[in-house]
């Protein structure tokens, strides 16, 4: 028996294959994991994220340096946090100055549309920025206002409902009307609703995305948010109130319910000119933000801000939290044959009272340390109660210094004129935000040029030195960086293929707790003892598996055995499993990740770091000759992974290279991701910082190539050629134009494996 083992070992050494022990590679343990390893990978990342989310409240302290010595010292100590909140909700555009709201009137009707006891109701609009205006109502008291208030309805309420001029909500919930009855000047803006009427590209495809999601998707890429836009509408009104206060002083307040509560809450946190806020049907622990509608998705929010932290930005000013029935949102509008593509998860339900109470008590600590404990009020109406209760409105009135008791609710206001058509007004408001966001997209090349201004491309050496900042920024701020892999590598392998020209091994490597890297290693049988060969990392696409590229007996129509073919030509090949598999199960990773300032590529980069570490340690690998070649989602990896990891000697992007900003935001093209369910493509502020040419430029002076089928439906040739031309010019200006290439071929979305194979052989120095 011992002799047979000895003879087998000698035979294996003679053909150059590393010594096997029970069908696993030498230096590794047997891989014993069974079942679907791709699903296990996704499930492991979910567990990792659940722990990170649970730990977020304890980890936030590192972002705060509060000084409770005085209100002035406190405000200064949280100024950076306030600006960070402003950035991540996208409330960053400079607002327009105006001296009066405009009354909406024409030759058919005046602006006055209603009258109630002690106040008049006008149709109005006011500017925000860049030609953007918001329409709504103004409830104007007959006398001098005791306070100036912006009352913000839930997304599915019209301003008229909140003012008592239209049916839809009970009289007791009409808090704009109640505030006007008590002597407040009240502005009620129009908030984008949750219908899907205009979400899509007419003549191409319509979607069931709520209007808020449609705007969120394009705005997110431009570093904006629908919530930030609407906060800006509120703050523009505050700007006007402040100018009016130069004539007649009155406290400034905000009040909102549901989506309006979110907007009121963040407005008060950002603007110290707001003296008091009523937040109804919104305040609760926010760690499960990923379960809420995607238009509430805010990059980095849970990592840096709990609800109590945002409330602390209001302290020592007044905050009234009303616990009542939250808006009930069970998901997007129903999918039909004509409309699809909305993010399927995302609900709003009423949380338990104790959850709201607990978060309020966390916030109270900050108010009390500033000697303002009485300025934080929780009104518990109950989980079935309507918003805008007498207690809540009275608490807000006390907070703005109202001297007289709150008046008993009066009669509903009388309609004088029909006023604006609510649907037409919503359409105008929707188009306004879409058009403004599309203008931002058109301006984004200028922003990218400004961002890259300090990168010096005078020589390849200077380029490498001066772009380290940009590599770090992209990883930290756009992709989201996790700490370096923390677990011992613990390699496990098992033999799965024994082809005439190569053997294949499944490989598993530990990365972080519950997160592992998995793939298939192909080793040519003609490897000589001590020989080190180039490696090609072959990356599958969406819903793919390494077997689809590496199995010698399966000719997948997209991959055409390209990993196996490269192994047959003598390359060492590694085909990783990436976590974009499992349909919505993997997309939920993105939902959980964004609030923690992470994305799918945060884990992929860690897995790649670990994989490269292991590959470089193998006796058959030349660590200076490791290339990357990916198709489709693997092509996305080709422009996001090798540019940030120096151990890659080259990169080939197949079936994905694109004018990515257009691809993710276009409201004109049938190629747009705006029309599809792939919400996992969103990357915050991508458009203002990078496009694909910027990412591929970061490969320089290392070689980079694009593979493009003319009939690939990912994008038209023109988009691909347009973006590639920028990188071709860049390499040419650096005098290394031979290091960049594109191959067009007459084919669909697939690996062609002609010019790309030649590129690999040339630049990985494998010319046999």
Describe this structure in words.
With 768 residues, the chain is an alpha/beta fold. The protein folds into two domains: 362 residues, Alpha/Beta hydrolase fold, catalytic domain (Rossmann fold), CATH 3.40.50; 365 residues, Alpha/Beta hydrolase fold, catalytic domain (Rossmann fold, 3-Layer(aba) Sandwich), CATH 3.40.50. The chain is built from 26 helices and 25 strands. Strands 4, 5, 6, 7, 8, 9, 12, 13, 14, 15 and 16 form an eleven-stranded mixed sheet that branches. A ten-stranded mixed sheet has the order 3-17-18-19-21-20-22-23-24-25, with helices on both faces. The longest helix has 30 residues. It is elongated and about 95 Å long. The N terminus is likely disordered.
């Amino acid at each position: 028996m011992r002799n047979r083992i000895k003879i087998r070992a000698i035979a294996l050494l003679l053909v150059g294959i590393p010594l096997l022990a029970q069908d696993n590679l030498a230096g590794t343990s047997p891989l014993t994991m069974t079942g679907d390893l791709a699903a296990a990978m996704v499930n492991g990342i979910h567990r990792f994220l659940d722990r990170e989310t649970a730990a977020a409240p304890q980890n936030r302290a590192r972002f705060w340096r509060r000084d409770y010595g005085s209100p002035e010292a406190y405000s200064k100590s949280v100024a950076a946090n306030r600006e960070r909140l402003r950035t991540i909700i996208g409330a960053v555009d400079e607002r327009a100055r105006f001296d009066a709201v405009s009354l909406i009137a024409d030759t058919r009707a005046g602006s006055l549309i209603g009258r109630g006891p002690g106040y008049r109701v006008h149709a109005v609009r006011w500017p925000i920025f860049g030609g953007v205006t918001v329409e709504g109502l103004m409830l104007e008291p007959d006398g001098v206002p005791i306070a100036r208030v912006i009352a913000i309805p839930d997304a599915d309420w019209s301003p008229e409902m909140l003012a008592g001029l239209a049916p839809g909500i009970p009289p007791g919930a009409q808090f704009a009307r109640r505030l006007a009855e008590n002597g407040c000047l009240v502005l009620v803006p129009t908030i984008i609703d949750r219908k899907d009427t205009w979400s899509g590209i007419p003549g191409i495809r319509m979607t069931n995305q709520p209007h808020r999601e449609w705007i969120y998707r394009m705005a997110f890429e431009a570093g904006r948010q629908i919530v930030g836009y609407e906060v800006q509408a509120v703050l523009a009104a505050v700007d006007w109130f402040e100018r009016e206060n130069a004539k007649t002083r009155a406290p400034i307040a905000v009040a909102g319910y549901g989506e309006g509560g979110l907007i009121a809450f963040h407005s008060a946190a950002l603007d110290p000119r707001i003296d008091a806020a009523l937040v109804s049907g919104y305040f609760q622990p926010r760690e499960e933000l990923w379960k809420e509608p995607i238009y509430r998705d805010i990059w980095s929010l849970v990592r840096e801000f709990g609800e109590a932290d945002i409330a602390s930005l209001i302290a020592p000013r007044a905050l009234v939290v009303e616990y009542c029935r939250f808006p009930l949102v069970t998901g997007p509008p129903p999918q039909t044959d004509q409309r699809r593509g909305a993010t399927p998860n995302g609900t709003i339900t009423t949380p338990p009272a104790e959850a709201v109470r607990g978060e309020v008590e966390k916030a109270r600590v900050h108010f009390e340390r500033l000697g303002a404990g009485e300025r934080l009020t929780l009104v518990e109406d109950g989980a079935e109660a309507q918003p805008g209760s007498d207690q809540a409105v009275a608490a807000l009135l006390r907070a703005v210094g109202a001297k007289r008791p709150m008046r008993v609710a009066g009669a509903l206001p009388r309609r004088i004129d029909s006023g604006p058509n609510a649907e037409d007004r919503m359409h105008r408001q929707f188009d306004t935000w879409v058009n403004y966001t599309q203008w931002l997209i058109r301006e984004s090349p200028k922003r990218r040029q400004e961002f890259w201004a300090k990168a010096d491309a005078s020589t390849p050496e200077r380029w490498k030195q001066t772009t380290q900042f940009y590599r770090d920024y992209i990883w930290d701020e756009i992709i989201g960086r996790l700490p370096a892999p923390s677990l011992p590598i613990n390699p496990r392998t098992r033999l799965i293929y024994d082809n005439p020209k190569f053997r294949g091994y499944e490989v598993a490597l530990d990365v972080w707790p519950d997160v592992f890297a998995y793939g298939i290693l192909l080793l040519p049988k003609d490897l000589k003892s001590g020989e080190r060969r180039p490696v090609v990392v072959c990356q599958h696409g969406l819903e793919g598996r390494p077997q689809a590229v590496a199995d010698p007996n399966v000719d997948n129509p997209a991959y055409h055995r390209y990993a196996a073919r490269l192994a047959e030509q003598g390359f060492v090949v590694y085909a990783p499993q990436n976590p974009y598999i499992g349909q919505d199960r993997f997309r939920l990773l993105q939902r959980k990740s964004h609030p923690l300032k992470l994305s799918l590529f945060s884990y992929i980069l860690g897995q790649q770091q670990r994989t490269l570490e292991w590959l470089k340690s193998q006796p058959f690998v030349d660590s200076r000759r490791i290339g990357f070649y990916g198709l489709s989602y693997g092509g996305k990896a080709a422009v996001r992974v090798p540019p940030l990891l120096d151990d890659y000697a080259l990169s080939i992007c197949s079936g994905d290279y694109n004018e990515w900003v257009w691809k993710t935001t276009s409201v004109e093209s049938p190629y747009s991701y705006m029309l599809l369910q792939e919400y996992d493509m969103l990357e915050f502020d991508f458009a203002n910082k990078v496009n694909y040419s910027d990412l591929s430029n970061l490969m320089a002076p290392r070689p980079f190539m694009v593979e493009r089928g003319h009939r690939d439906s990912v994008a038209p040739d023109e988009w691909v050629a347009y973006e590639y031309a920028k990188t071709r010019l860049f390499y040419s200006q650096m005098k290394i134009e031979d290091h960049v290439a594109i191959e067009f071929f007459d084919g669909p979305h697939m690996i062609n494996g002609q010019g790309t194979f030649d590129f690999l052989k040339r630049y990985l120095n494998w010319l046999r």
